[in-house]
Structure formats: C-alpha cells, structure tokens
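Structural prep section.
Before we set up the soaks we want a predicted structure of the protein with NAP in place, mainly to decide which crystallisation condition to try first. Input record follows.
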Amino acid sequence: MIEPVYSAAPGRYENMEYRRCGRSGVRIPVLALGLWHNFGSLKPFSEVKAMAHYAFDKGICHFDLANNYGPVFGAAEENFGRLMDSSFRPYRDELFISTKAGWDMWPGPYGNWGSRKYLMASLDQSLRRMKLDYVDIFYSHRWDPETPLEETMQALVDIVRQGKALYVGLSRYPAEQARKAFHYLAERDVPCLLYQDRYNIIDRAPQCSGLIDLCAEGGSGFIAFSPLQQGLLSGRYLNGIPADSRMAQGVFLKQEMLTQELLQALDGLNKLAAGRGQSLAQMALSWLLNDNRVTSVIIGASSVAQIEDNLKTIGTTGFTDEELKLVESLSAPVQLKKLG
Ligand SMILES: NC(=O)c1ccc[n+]([C@@H]2O[C@H](COP(=O)([O-])OP(=O)(O)OC[C@H]3O[C@@H](n4cnc5c(N)ncnc54)[C@H](OP(=O)(O)O)[C@@H]3O)[C@@H](O)[C@H]2O)c1
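Run finished without errors. Recording the tokens verbatim:
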C-alpha cells in the first residue's frame, strides 16, 4: 500500500505556548520532544513516525537529539533523517532541531568528551545521518575536565561561523565552568542560547547550584530534560513495574531507585495532582513551567498517548502558594541536590 504524503495539521501553532530563549530572537515551544529513548533501532519506524508527526501537528516544533541516541548509537538521528525524507523536508524552516556531542560515540581517543577534533567530526556525522545542512542548535553534551574549556568553546564558535549550527548550547556543565563558558561565547558574539540540564520535582541540582539563576542573569535560556525523572513522576510505577516500561529494561532507570520512601512521595504527589485535576505527569510538567526562568521542557515518550497526556499541561501551569508548599514538603525527603 502506498502511504499518503504527510501534511502537517493546520492550526498546529494555536494551542502551544512559545517562550523566548534568554536574550535571543528565537522562541521555542514549552514542550519539546526528546529522541533519547524509543526513537532508535528497537522501535518500528511506523511508531517513530506516528509520535513525531503527532508532536509536530500539536505545535511541538523542537526535536532534541544527540549523536549517540539509539540504540544503536546514531539510530535516532538516522530515523530523523528518514523522517526528513518522508515527511518533514517541506517544513524544515518550521523545525528547531538540536544535536549534541560529548559522550561516548566511537572507539579511540577522538570519539568522546570535548576536543575540537571530536565535536567537529561528530557534527558532520550527525548532519549526514539526519540529512540536514545545518542544525538549529549544537550542544557540548558535557563538560570535559581534561580539555581546555577554551578549545571546546572555540569549536562551538567555529561551528556557528561555518554555518553548521545556527546557535550553540551547553549541557551538564558545573556552574563554575558554565559561567566561564557563557563568558567566552558571549565575548565572541556566539552566546549560549540554551543550557540543558536534568531538572524536575525530585532532581533539584540546577536550582541548588545556582545554574538556573546564572542562565537568567547571563541571558541564556534554560531547558529541562527528564522532567518526569524518566517516568518516575507519572502514574507508571505507582502499582508495580509495567513490563513495557523503561524501568523494566533496567538500563538507565534501575529498579533499586523505587524505594518505599520514593513511592510514598510519589503517592502523595499523585493525590495532590488529582486534587488539581491533573495526572502526576501533567503536574510535574506544570511545576517546571510555572517558573518563567524555564524556557522549555524536553519530554520523552514511548507512545502517542503519552504525548497527548503531556500536552494537556499547556494552560494549566499555575500553582497556588499552598500547592507549591505541598510539592516541597512531599518531595523534600527524596530530593536530589547535586549534579549526579
Ligand atoms: N542533555 C542530556 O544529557 C540529556 C540526558 C537525558 C535526556 N535528555 C533529553 O531529554 C529528553 C527527555 O528525557 P526523558 O526521556 O528522560 O524524559 P522524561 O519525560 O522524564 O521520561 C520519559 C518517559 O516517561 C514516561 N512517560 C512520559 N509521559 C508519560 C505519561 N504521560 N504517563 C506515564 N508515563 C509517561 C515514558 O516511560 P516509558 O518508556 O516507561 O513508557 C517515557 O519514555 C530525552 O529524549 C533527551 O532528548 C538530555
């Protein structure tokens, strides 16, 4: 059977909120879709396509990738390249696409960390896999303690000058290094557009380190990843571990994390969410977006239904002071406060 040609939904921008990335000219949707899990070689392409189309049809025009998203490494970018060919090419100027390099990608001394050699080669590979001429934002995926910060930052500057990325970003940098990096980039007129870190009701590291304030003061946007702490902050694990869940795979989300203390906190938060007329996932996303220093939140999903559920967050992000106090007291015993 010949598949119909994809045609994006009219009115796709009507119900999404877009926030400005720091002191820049560009706005991104408050929900972005991340392709870390469920977009690689284990998922049938038909499901990858269904989730990506659904997201774009609802105004999620920011897709977050990295060189090693899979499995196997590179597979999510390859699938994104297939999406470009099958559906998204006519919409390229409506899309905000990111990729990153900084983690383990290929063997030998040049396939990891933060050297100019690695970042330049990796981005070229990413562009080939994604069938793109340029990405909208290229991130240094993590701070490399052994490469001079100036080398990594100058590679980012030169990538923009070469036209291979329109903007640059940083992910998972300790506050002190982030401060220096922001300064280096700004001095060369290639300011850091977005700083990306794990942030959610349980993981407070970027709040505790002062990074969120640093971004706000320095004119960078802040984009939160793993807003549901990989699914913990949803109803997914309240009654056991579903066979098709990320925790059942046991690679990035381990069963040991599901302690009695955490379950008790999740149960309390779930009840609070129900009182607000929300699912726990929706409340967790609302809590992040209630803070206007948070530019956007990158959700992950294993189905269209999860994206649909998460989209209901839009327009429901307000909290009363009493609700905010309850979120604090319920989550306090299980909050993580350091970059882990
Ligand atoms: N910069 C970095 O170092 C870095 C690191 C990690 C992630 N990221 C980015 O952030 C993105 C999101 O990270 P993440 O996948 O950990 O995000 P997340 O939103 O915290 O977790 C996503 C998982 O939560 C579950 N879920 C989502 N919506 C749900 C709902 N409404 N109800 C019940 N369960 C729901 C699903 O788990 P199941 O699969 O079990 O269904 C889904 O796969 C990644 O794709 C990536 O783009 C960046």
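Observations: The chain has one domain: 18-238+281-317.
Flagged for discussion at group meeting.
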